[in-house]
Amino acid sequence: MIPPRLRRIAADETGATAVEYAMLLAMLILVAIAGINALGGANNAFWQGNIDALAAAIFNANS
């Protein structure tokens, strides 16, 4: 036999929406991290090429 107070607590759904939004946010964060990891190498090569070109331009301008 379950006490009435415990039955009320188990049936209460007031925090369910917050939990659902937290789970959705966690899933979105995981997808974002996976995307960053998948594209990280290409992104790093892109920015490294820009840095190298900028460094060469600055070096040649000062020579």
From TrEMBL:
Keywords: Membrane, Transmembrane, Transmembrane helix
Superkingdom of origin: Bacteria
Transmembrane portions of the chain: 21-40
The protein's name in its UniProt record: Flp family type IVb pilin
The organism's taxonomic lineage, starting at the top: Bacteria, Pseudomonadati, Planctomycetota, Planctomycetia, Isosphaerales
